[in-house]
Amino acid sequence: MSTGITPTTELEAVNTILANIGETETNSLEDETFIDALAARKLLTSVTRELQTRSWFWNTDVERKMQRNLQGEIIVAANTMSIQPAGVDRGLSIVQRGSRLYDRKNHTYNFDKDITCTITIALPFDEMPESARRFATLRAARMFQEQTLSSESLAQGDRIDESLAYAALMNDHVRVAGFSYLTGSPTSRDVMMRRRV
User: What strand order describes the sheet that includes 115-121?
Assistant: First the structure.
């Protein structure tokens, strides 16, 4: 039987941020007259983006084949946060420049074959796992409170909540990425070594 409990929505996250400073909740993310709600959502987006500059089990595609277009260029998606050659192409000197891959050794955007890459992407808030949503929400709530009220007593409790949420996120990551690590995935090794927010 369903309990009616679902993962945190972006609207609920914004309202959590507002509630943390004693502000009234909003019924819509599109209400442009509610300045605090707009600011809370903007901060939540910034924190979510910052979180996803790192490779997590849920925002990283491992050994994905990147196909060339008719001009021989490889175009990367707009939400790509980082990309690196992987698998059989791991040793290639290729980086992202703008919306395309660039071959640093041969000084060209043109490739004579498709390239296998590991890609970290930025997902919308509602596509992240609940542990990531909760951490982003509580981190944004703590930052928003510090920017608006600057209450040290509130900040202490916020920091504890944020730390607990980060621990839960890390637990999820190690549980999933740890399994991949045993398979020898280079991405999993890199992810586990770089974990820090």
Answer: 60-66, 115-121, 80-85
